[in-house]
Every structure is written in C-alpha cells, then in structure tokens.
Sequence to fold (273 residues):
Amino acid sequence: MRKFIFAAAFLAAVAPSKGETIPEFVKVRAVAWDENAKAAGDKEWAVRVVAEVESAAKAGAEIIVFPEGFARGRGVEAVLDGVKLAAGKDRLVIFAGAPHQDGKDSVSRARFLSGGSWQWMDKLDLTPAERAQKPPLKPGMRLPLLRFRGAVVAALPAYSLLKPEIAASLKKRGVSLVLVSAPADDELGRARLLRAAAGRAVELGAAVLIAPPASEAPSLHLPAQKGFDLKAPVPSGPDFLVPWKKLLELRLKPDPAEPRPFLDPSPYYQVEI
Fold:
C-alpha cells in the first residue's frame, strides 16, 4: 500500500492558535484560466499570471487557486517573485503542478504561497499523459497540507480526490477545506470528480472546491450538516464565500445529537464475514 509522508512545514493542529481570530467567511477565487486560448509568449503569460493574482487580491480573495494546465508546459519559477509581491503575506496561492526537473527525475511540481513564502510538493497522482511521457514523470509521496486562518487546508490534483486512501489521510488530519485544481476532462471524468467532491464534503465535514479551466464552471461542495445551506452555492463570478467559522465549529463544538462520522477517523475493524 502506498504510504504518504507528511512534511513538517505543512502539518497543523485542528484547533486555532491562541488569540487567533476566526473569520465568518473566507473568499476563495477559482481563477478562470482558458487553456484553449491562443498561446501567448512567456512574457505575456507571466504578466497575465501576476495580473490574475492582483485582480483576485483587489476583490478581497484570501485564497487563490489556479487550475491544472494554466502553465501550458512552462515552469513557474519566473513568476514566483511577482506573484508573491502581488499577493502579500496574508494570502494563500495555489499553483497546480508544472513541469520541473529535479536532478535526473522529471516531476510535476505544485507551488504554494503561504505566509509570504513559497512551499512546494510534487504531484501525487499523475494523469495518463504524464505517466506516458518518455521518460515518465515521477509521482510525489507527500500529501500537501497547509494551515490557514486556524484551519487545515489540503491542495490536491483531481484524481487524488477519488482515492479512498487519500480521503482516510485527510480525515485523520481534520481538514476543513480541500482545494482541487482540475484539468479539462471528458464528461465521465467531470462527473466522477463532482460526485466525489459532494461525497467527500459529507465524509470529511469539509468544504471541497473544484477549480477547473475556464471551459468548466467552478463548484463548491459543503457538508450536509445543521447550519449549512444544503443548496449548492452559486458563486459571484469566480469567487466563493466559504463559511469558515461554521466549518471549524463542526469540530470545536460537537453536538452528540448530530451525526458526524468524519470526527472518527477509524470507527470500524476490518472483519471478513
């Protein structure tokens, strides 16, 4: 069975730090990046990436998520400084995996701007095209978890959300928000992802946000628990208001009368009958 190694820089307690103010809502921007548009030069592409972050920051977004495919095969090193300046210290920026050469290994490396500094993780679950490359990309082995506004946040590629072993790891960490950078996919792939997102939201007691390319609408899935709107949230453009305080209160103020299976990471013994 595949094991996942947790990097110390990404681990966080479920409870907020002492004196930390928990906001009612956190605005999340799912960047609408059209990967089918005419390819721009490297300079034009870099300007656009920074402009997307600046636009989201001016609109009050605290978390900014880019979909898979936004880099169009480019490395993102050239835009890291500009994005850091545009985002500032208090925002979380998620770059989906982009090509990177790590010694002899080719990887798809995701970047995370958190607390004003960049972190990285290699993509856990590769697409068939990435596995078919010559040489094939090497998958990562660490599950990306970050702390933000008192909560634990996970940033995943689309296929990882479908895997039960990933869900079990997220449950053990008490994740409150799962950010999924999704590629353009076929109809069946999109259906699998959306159904999995709704199920994971209930299973984990977390919000699950799908950030696809501009050809598909982003979506936010919330737990079906008392106090949450049971209808799918309708975004204002690419922005979602995530009910941050309510998500944390699911764990900080348990109600014995309300079923919350996500609070118990391993309620069953495995018995063959």
Remarks:
- The first strand starts at residue 26 and ends at 30.
- The radius of gyration is 18 Å.
- The CA atoms of residues 84 and 116 lie 7 Å apart.
